[in-house]
Amino acid sequence: MKKYAIIVAGGSGSRMQSSIPKQFMMLKEKPVLYYTLDVFLRSYADMNIVLVLPEEYIATGQEIIDAYFNYDRIKITTGGRTRFHSVQNGLKLVEGESIVLVHDAVRCLLDVSLIHSCYEAAFEFGAVVPAIACKDSVRIINEDGSNESVERRHVRLVQTPQAFLSTILIPAYSIDYKDRFTDEATVVEAFGMKVKLIEGDERNIKITRPEDLELANLLMQ
Question: Which of 216, 217, 211, 182 has the alpha carbon at shortest distance from 17?
Answer without folding.
Answer: 211
